[in-house]
Amino acid sequence: MSSSDSRLLLYAKQEANAAVALDAKGQYREAMNKYFRAAEILIEFTKYNKNPIMRKRCEATIQEYLERAKQIKMKLSGPKARHSGTAAASGKAEDDKLATDEGMYSEEQQEIINMISGTILTESPNVRWNDIAGLENVKQNLREAIVLPIIRPELFIGARKPWSGILLFGPPGCGKTLLAKAAATECKATFFSVSSADLLSKWLGESEKLISALFRVAKIKAPSLIFIDEIDSIATKRGTGSESGGERRVKTQLLSEIQGVKSTAEKVLLTLGATNRPWDIDNAMLSRFQKKVYVPLPDLEARAAIFRIHTAGVNMALTDDDFIELAVRSEGYSGRDISNVCREVIMIPIRELDMKGLLEDSSKEIKVRDLVLEDFLNTMKKVKPMTTKKDLEEYEKWAEEFGEQ
Ligand SMILES: Nc1ncnc2c1ncn2[C@@H]1O[C@H](COP(=O)(O)OP(=O)(O)OP(=O)(O)O)[C@@H](O)[C@H]1O
Ligand SMILES: [Mg+2]
Question: In terms of pLDDT, which residue wins out, 203 or 121?
Fold first, then answer.
């Protein structure tokens, strides 16, 4: 199991423990949100974990969390609970930004707002443009399409109105999600980040309600940026794959909401989608995103910078030339591939010490050796890029037909 896998498991466990504790204390709404969160994290985990026994075990646990969350949900929406629902919600206002305007909304709206805040990330992501190497054109593009209309809405009037839908597409691990976060941080809009897993959360059985609530709250909270990650999984072409009735309804709802988005100088509301499978997206959905921005694999300079970013603060004996050599040798690697290489590499000196049994006695001071070029080159023989030449051709073909850089 990779370290990011085990981190996910750890997060899920932490959330679940918190849920159980809150549940026992009678803080049901918070407990429900934590159960949902724990389930979501485990769902994410099972997406990437190939071990069938592990997956099975996780699926059972997910069901358990969802079951309890559903019971709580029913309890909370009962007539008596509904009455005290707002009072309970106001107690957690400090960790729930959306709940702070209570009193402004009807009980039902408040219920929906609370529902959104449990399943959709709204905190500021705190990623800066500088944390993202390369992609200068893309950053400029997003600045013009997202940041400027939000910070200077008065300039985007008449024919110069902002694009309401922007789609980022490109190979996995090249910074689409990072870019969305940086754009949100930079424009200080209310940021709604939903993954398609959230929207397809069949256990809620209320995805359509969730989507309409999301857009409604975004309108109230404008200027807002709604980020829908992995939009391909929700907007597959009609008739392909095994789309269920529920999924179709969610898609239709999303289409009509995006269609209805209209920014005015007073209220800027933008939808940003991201996908690494643009060709799977339904044409109706595709047409809602008037601006399609290609996020390609990092170029030579960007790769060198990504190696630096992901080894920052670790002692090493690499020269500038060594970084250029790494960049040359890593052609075809995505940012995520390089980050995976770096994660392996920075553990090498620790592993060596551990294998010599030198880490047992924590009172002993220990010197960790510098990383050297060889560490990287050896690791790159094992950690290969995820994107194939054939994939790349497909992206480029699609970009030529639909996108801009
Ligand atoms: N240009 C970059 N600069 C710095 N780090 C990067 C860059 N591109 C990718 N990374 C690293 O790779 C990780 C994955 O990037 P990100 O999640 O933005 O990719 P993505 O394009 O959204 O991928 P996916 O299509 O799989 O969702 C980042 O968290 C970061 O560590
Ligand atoms: Mg992503």
Answer: 121
